[in-house]
Design goal:
single chain; 452 residues; mainly alpha; Ammonium transporter fold; two-stranded antiparallel sheet; 20 helices; globular; ammonium channel activity; transmembrane helix; Ammonium_transpt
């Protein structure tokens, strides 16, 4: 007890409070991802598209406590952490920087669960919910945590070669986008039990517009707000750099939203919430790896670039060839998170500044190409992006395929379930009462009770 209290006294109370507040603001981003997927799905699959976000919270929290934190931030080797912190043994008030280790663990858990919630969006409208429970556990263990260890731990391979990844260009966005793409592709071309089933037909889903703009609106507000806390809290202390990280995150998101929505208005003559939402997300994705390394002006132009590139990438799924190849990108994760993550990781190597990185008073980097003439950084960033994509895509595909081998865990829903909507088959609940014909004539009182 005395040692714990001594460790607590060694922590900065201001920094601890700051990161605790950031955790509170960041947590809603996980269900908000599901809310966004719900809005994008069909009316009869809205609840089943939201629920995977809750699965991610539930499973990742337990997994992180058991072994996840130890694999991501234990000593281990350059690829993966060790087992000294399983079940959070000894993870108490000992400072990580100036905050208690248990708080550091909780903050990093939110990263893990958020990435998982984005990744499982690749199964929306076609994938069954039951297989997502083991998938989230195994994916966290073998995909996210080794990648987080390689990039962010003290002895990680990518971190040691000089990768600049402030808040997760590769462990967050490339990882989630590649994982979601792997799930989507497997559902189009399953290898095992889903393929052999006579009641399951892998095919391209008909493209449709988002069914609920309110879900998109709420998701945008929550995600944008939480992202400011994500990037500011990544400094793990309250200083000028954390303030700047929040500011550049906001301007980049605004630039992306403005660019994408204006292009849509130019082409159609109307303003679009969907375009504003996608533009803001593209800006937030691109700024994530560079939020602690760039100034406001650079962040603005990064947001513009992200909106233009991600918007073009989104067009892929509307082509005839995409339909012929059964390409399904339900939550647009490939266009925004995967392509945006690649681009954000690369522009970090181009525009990172030594001066901005040092705003916290102790971070020293060589900088990027344009401001500090460090061409080597560009190669390091490209290497990180390629490793992150390959690791995430192959790992996710293999895990999903192995789960599909288990009787009763077929990942692809039955044809009848996809046609009728996933809410009825997977949840027996709905966001819309009209779906349940048996409740059409429901009366709260039996018989002919009258109220005088």
């Amino acid at each position: 007890m005395d040692s714990v209290l001594e460790a607590w006294e060694a922590c900065s109370k201001i920094d601890t409070l700051f990161i605790l507040v950031c955790c509170v603001f960041c947590w809603p981003i996980i269900p908000a991802v599901g809310l966004g997927y719900s809005g994008y799905s069909t009316r009869r699959s809205g609840l089943a598209s939201f629920y995977p976000g809750l699965i991610a919270i539930i499973v990742c929290t337990v997994q992180w406590w058991i072994i996840g934190y130890s694999l991501a931030y234990g000593e281990g080797n350059s690829i993966i952490g060790g087992f000294e912190k399983v079940f959070h043994r000894g993870v108490l008030a000992e400072p990580i920087g100036s905050i208690p280790e248990i708080l550091f663990s909780e903050f990093q858990l939110i990263f893990c669960a958020t990435v998982c919630a984005i990744a499982v969006g690749g199964a929306c409208e076609r994938g069954r919910l039951l297989p997502l429970f083991p998938f989230c556990f195994l994916w966290s263990t073998f995909v996210y945590e080794p990648l987080a260890h390689m990039v962010w731990s003290e002895n990680g391979f990518l971190g040691n070669i000089g990768v600049l990844d402030f808040a997760g260009g590769t462990p967050v966005h490339i990882c989630s986008g590649a994982s979601a793409t792997a799930l989507s592709i497997y559902l189009s071309y399953p290898l095992f039990r889903s393929r052999k089933s006579t009641v399951r037909t892998p095919q391209h889903l008909k493209l449709h517009r988002p069914h609920n703009s309110i879900c998109q609106l709420l998701a945008l507000v929550i995600i944008w707000n939480a992202w400011l806390a994500f990037d500011a809290g990544t400094t793990l202390s309250l200083n000028f750099k954390s303030v700047m990280a929040a500011c550049v995150t906001n301007i980049c998101a605004a630039a992306g939203a403005l660019t994408w929505s204006c292009i849509t208005y130019y082409e159609s003559g109307t303003w679009s919430l969907d375009s504003t939402f996608m533009g803001a997300i593209s800006g937030l994705v691109l700024i994530t790896p560079s939020a602690g390394f760039v100034d406001m002006t650079t962040a603005f132009f990064i947001g513009v670039l992200g909106a233009v590139v991600c918007r073009q990438a989104l067009r892929i799924k509307f082509t005839k060839r995409a339909a012929m190849w059964r390409w399904v990108d339900n939550g647009d994760t490939f266009a925004t998170h995967c392509i945006g993550g690649f681009l954000g990781t690369i522009v970090t190597g181009l525009f990172a500044q030594r001066e901005v990185a040092a705003y916290d008073g102790f971070t020293v980097i060589k900088g990027g190409v344009f401001f500090d003439g460090n061409w080597e950084q560009l190669g390091i960033q490209i290497l990180e992006a390629l490793i992150g994509f390959s690791w995430s895509f192959m790992g996710s595909y293999i895990i999903y395929a192995l789960i599909d081998c288990v009787p009763g865990f077929e990942v692809l829903a039955k044809d009848s379930e996809v046609i009728s909507g996933m809410d009825a088959s997977q949840m027996d609940e709905s966001l819309y009462e009209a779906q349940w014909e048996t409740e059409a004539d429901y009366h709260p009182f039996e018989g002919s009770v009258r109220l005088e």
